[in-house]
User: Fold this.
Amino acid sequence: MDSLRRNQYLQAIGVDVWVSRHATAAAPVTEAAATADAAPDLKAPLSSSAAGVGGVASVDAAGSVGAAASVGAQATVGPEPTAPSGAPTVTTWESLRAEVLTCTRCTLHTSRTQGVFGVGNREAQWLVVGEAPGAEEDRRGEPFVGRAGHLLDAMLRAIGLNRANNVYIANVLKSRPPGNRDPKPEEVAACLPFLMRQIELLRPRVMLAVGRIAAQNLLATDVPLGRLRGKVHHFGELNTPLIVTYHPAYLLRTPGDKRKAWEDLKFARSVFRGLTST
Assistant:
């Protein structure tokens, strides 16, 4: 991506673009652009011993591997989806979508407008997982379409992704909680199997969990989001790399953390590049 386009995306996200006073008008330089490709090289695969016994291996942003055998941030085990027996078909996706739209497993079906299944390329190598539909998502039946969704789109474009071509977007919950409250444990328990089946069908190379609710439920932990950032977690029996960042709705309320989110996105991009270059 050329510098001009990257700068435009950074400005859309809300990351300040700094220009050196000695730079010429023809060659603007941004702090973020200057470090855009400076994320760590994570091409070296993790050994099976790095994860410990029954743990989730984590690699921090500096490239160090931490064992997850002890209790704490690294001692979380994400749910383990079963690998599909064959290549997913349109019928399989559509039958799952029909289940979501008619689901009555929890009381949220009594207050929702409709179930919100997911959106994007069903052969994408990236999966973005959020918390739950909001009011606009509930109305339109698509995840991340309000103000937070517009910011998410700008964030994804900054690393070369968009929901139409190379990323799939879904939520932990498929029905909107009243008043956008946090999901209840029984609601997550009822809805999470749908997400697990989406992951089985998609088989992404990288997962990006946006926000505390998504991260904690995917990793089965109550560790604060700040301690989950900057590491490569691994999800399920396929050990899919999972990166944690802030929810765009939080970034709208706390714009000072947008630069941290940009670092998370660059980190996720470097992980993906390491996977695809081997």
User: Anything to note?
Assistant: The chain is about 35% helix and 10% strand. Residues 20-57, 62-77, 80-87 have pLDDT under 50 and may be disordered. The first helix runs from residue 3 to 13.
